[in-house]
Amino acid sequence: MGIDRGQNNMNATGDLEGGRGKRTRRFVRLLVCLILGPAAGSVAGATEGVVLLHGLCRTTKSMEKMEAALSATGFVVENIGYDSRHHSIAALSEQVMSDVASRARLRECSKIHFVTHSLGGLLVRNYLKRHDFERLGRVVMLAPPNQGSEVVDKIGSWYLFRKINGPAGSELGTADESTPNQLGPVGFECGVIAGDRSINWINSLMIAGKDDGKVSIERTKVEGMKDHRVLHVSHPFIMEDHEAIQTTIRFLRHGNFREMGEDLRRFHSLGASGKPVWNHDT
Fold first, then answer.
1. Which of 67, 112, 166, 174 would disulfide-bridge 148, Cβ 3.0–4.6 Å?
2. For residues 140 and 251, is the Cβ–Cβ distance under 8 A?
């Protein structure tokens, strides 16, 4: 009988500890999900698509690093190319969205996000100003000339500029009647990442305020955007920057650019009951 009572006590203790252990493990899993978001292969990640749009005079190759990172995270990614040098912004936006609609892998996605570089962001804005887009998710714009660029004001009329950059490039001035400034506020979840490092000092002489060599930080902003972040990176390489990529993933998951763990800044400790204790002083 003594042995039976001892075994019962041990079983009771084990059950108690097992219950606490389960609560702790559940809380840890919740903590990881809050910090990292959905893991690759999860329902949320695997059923959401991302369309990548490169910038002016660039190709899909410039977005390959971003493509690899998003794919590894669990998104269905389509890196779409377009002839940026020979058509207007409106014409390009129609071409790109027609291509998006034709991508079979995106048809089963519950949401379709966009990650754009430079001109690519204006193609999304231009299209969404004129059309609805079902299953639209979030949009991250990298170094977008949302209010145009003074560089185009200064040299946009030059023959060489027009030859290289085409009709779309000539639309990117800062005048009120320029295409970027006629598009109005965004009506979707939009995060903008700007750069403050220039490797083109000649262009930077034409730009007021801090810039990335093509666009000022201030002119990347657009009315209605949900978040804005500045990174120490230049315009041509922002889409390949590790921090820019991680910041992009955070916005696609959470709708903001807060650093990992900031959502849990007020977390203090795990109490004896297995429930979290919060620090209300932060």
1. 174
2. yes
- What is the number of residues in the chain? 282
Instruction: Specify the 3-state DSSP secondary structure of 67.
Output: helix
**pLDDT above 50: residue 50:** yes
Q: In the chain, what is the greatest distance between 2 CA atoms, to the nearest angstrom?
A: 100
- Residue-wise pLDDT for 147-160, tens only, equals 999 999 999 999 99
Judged by DSSP in three states, 148 sits in: coil
* 43-254: CATH topology: Rossmann fold (3.40.50)
User: What is the pTM for the complete model shown?
Assistant: 0.77
C-alpha pair distances (Å), 191 with each of 139, 153, 217: 6, 26, 14
Domain regions of the chain by residue span: 1-36, 43-254
Instruction: Give CA–CA dist 159/169, Å, rounded.
Output: 12
pLDDT digits (tens, 9 = 90+) for 220-261: 999 999 999 999 999 999 999 999 999 999 999 999 998 755
CA distance 25 to 147: 49
3-class SS string, 150-215: HHHHHHCCCHHHHHHHHHHHHCCCCCCCCHHHHCCCCCCCEEEEEECCCCCHHHHHHCCCCECCCC
Q: Give percent of the chain with pLDDT exceeding 90.
A: 74
3-state helix, strand, coil in the chain (%, to 5): 50, 15, 35
Count CA atoms closer than 13 A to 137's CA, side-chain side: 25
* Alpha-carbon span 102 to 4, nearest angstrom: 70
Cβ burial, residue 274 (10 Å; 0-12/13-18/19+): middle
